[in-house]
Specification:
Layout (H helix, E strand, L loop, with lengths): L1 E2 L6 E7 L2 E6 L2 E6 L19 E5 L5 E5 L6 E5 L2 E5 L14 H16 L6 E5 L5 H8 L3 E6 L2 H13 L7 E5 L2 H11 L5 E4 L4 E3 L5 E3 H13 L8 E6 L6 H12 L5 E10 L6 E11 L2
Parallel strand pairs: 1-16, 4-5, 9-10, 9-12, 10-11, 12-15
Antiparallel strand pairs: 2-3, 3-4, 5-6, 7-8, 13-14, 15-17, 16-17
Helix pairs in contact: 1-2, 5-6
């Protein structure tokens, strides 16, 4: 497991009964988590005195019960600073387990720069609120940030500004990721690294249905055509239940092996303070070229 255990402003305090108790800076949240199938005693008093709890509805969806919580606040991870905003469907705009991937991408970019690489470019697809974008910019790369949701791109700009990256070399694109990539191929634009965080299920602007199990192979195959002649890496994230990390490695090896390099895949996880164990939080595949 790739554990994101360097956080100071975030931690999972406990998890039990389908929920996790988290500290986001100065505030504590209780959120549902389908991975938490155990029922250990909830001894921490913050379980019943948290600043907010997200409860699911029997009819679908859910809602926040906010005791004392601002509309937004900031937390830091190393050199990066992010704006946290509790929103619909339990999310906060940030996935802390991705921190190990931010560290990895930053190390790859900085190592390449130290070895003489210049003008390293990254394409971040399904880029959400831009945490990976900020990490790559902070490491010295230029980034093309693409997401179909205008509000998420605006939020990513806020995170970049909070991280001191307002003047960094970034293109903010509101577009369907596949259609944008097709146009980049036709325009002859190429990137040294690609990061993608595709949804398990979604709909395109024209009503097109995206299902990761059916569409990821074609999408990653398409993205192979926008890589530079001397690429650094491709990072693929998945939160699709039941999809083993090794599936991402197998797919990546098939698509990228002709360029040299190899894939490594694993679960992502976050430490739980009260148990000392790691909570699994998704999967990633890191393909490195050489």
């Amino acid at each position: 497991m790739w554990g994101s255990d360097k956080w100071k402003d975030f931690e999972i305090l406990d998890c039990s009964g389908g929920e996790k108790l988290e500290r986001w800076g100065a505030y504590t949240l209780v959120r549902p988590d389908p991975q938490v199938i155990w029922n250990t005693p909830k001894k921490d008093p913050l379980w019943s005195a948290s600043d907010a709890r997200y409860s699911r509805s029997s009819s679908g969806g859910g809602a926040w019960d906010k005791n004392s919580l601002p509309e937004s606040w900031q937390i830091s991870y190393g050199e990066l600073r992010f704006n946290v905003k509790p929103m619909n469907f339990k999310h906060t705009g940030l996935f802390p387990e991705q921190a190990s991937n931010w560290d990895w991408a930053m190390e790859k970019i900085r190592s390449a720069a130290l070895s003489g690489r210049k003008n390293i470019s990254v394409l971040n697809l399904f880029a959400y609120t831009g945490a990976a974008t900020c990490a790559c910019l902070k490491a010295g790369a230029s980034v093309c940030h693409v997401d179909a949701a205008k509000g998420m791109v605006a939020w990513a700009k806020e995170n970049a500004a909070s991280s001191g990256l307002s003047n960094a070399p970034v293109r903010w694109i509101v577009d369907d990721c596949a259609k944008f990539t097709e146009r980049e191929i036709r325009r002859g634009h190429r990137y040294d690294a690609i990061i993608m965080d595709p949804p398990s299920y979604g709909r395109g602007p024209g009503g097109e249905i995206w299902k990761l199990e059916n569409d990821l192979w074609d999408f990653v195959s398409l993205c192979e055509n926008v890589l530079s002649d001397d690429p650094l890496f491709v990072l693929i994230n998945s939160y699709t239940t039941g999809l083993a990390p090794s599936v991402l490695s197998y797919m990546s090896e098939c698509i990228f092996k002709g360029r040299g390099g190899s894939a490594a895949s694993d679960e992502l996880g976050l430490p739980v303070r009260d148990s000392g164990l790691f909570l699994p939080c998704g999967a990633s595949c890191r393909y490195e070229f050489w």
